[in-house]
Design a protein that fits this description.
By secondary structure, the protein is mainly alpha-helical. The chain has a single domain (12-97, 105-157), classed as Alpha/alpha barrel (Glycosyltransferase). It contains 6 helices and 3 strands. It has helices at residues 11-25, 46-63, 66-83, 113-123, 126-139, 147-157; strands at 26-27, 31-36, 40-43. Strands 1-2-3 form a 3-stranded antiparallel sheet. It starts with 10 loop residues before the first helix and ends with a helix.
Length: 159
């Protein structure tokens, strides 16, 4: 049995909800906060920015609205400025914070460098996307199902 095709009535509400959440957590030049309850908490996580860049580009593709693409580009600039490892390539998991203590002082290269490669390539930052892909390639061994993101990124960027 085929389900009847439903009209795309929720799209404007979905985009409006996404914009409300995004804009409450976003500050120009500072990027996204992990969550916002009147004050920014934990700002500068790679995973948050990568997810937002991908979603903004999807919103642009679905709506044709240029501000979505522009915001994806802005967030790409933020992670390149704050999270890019200039010496070895790839992205760190988060931006350093002056109040970091203990293990929080150690910045790591997360597995989502492959996901960052996909998002940055879509946003037009191919050089950084390829650098993130190279870091993801070095991390692939022993990653199990998480290695699928590397395969997707490699397919998009190389093949």
């Amino acid at each position: 049995m085929r389900w009847p095709r439903q009209p795309c009535w929720p799209r404007p509400r979905c985009l409006a909800s996404f914009e409300r959440v995004l804009l409450s957590c976003y500050r120009p030049g500072l990027g996204l906060a992990h969550y916002y309850d009147g004050a920014a908490h934990v700002r500068g996580l790679l995973a948050d920015h990568v997810a937002a860049i991908g979603t903004l580009l999807d919103a642009h593709d679905a709506s044709g609205s240029e501000p979505y693409r522009m915001m994806a580009e802005e967030l790409s600039h933020v992670i390149i400025r704050d999270l890019w490892d200039v010496e070895r390539g790839g992205f760190f998991d988060r931006a350093p914070a002056p109040d970091d203590v203990g293990l929080l002082r150690l910045r790591r290269k997360p597995l989502n460098n492959a996901e960052a490669a996909i998002a940055l390539d879509r946003a037009g930052f191919r050089e950084h996307a390829l650098g993130a892909l190279r870091v993801a390639a070095r991390q692939i061994e022993g990653q199990g199902p998480a290695a699928a993101l590397y395969a997707l990124a490699r397919r998009q960027l190389i093949n």
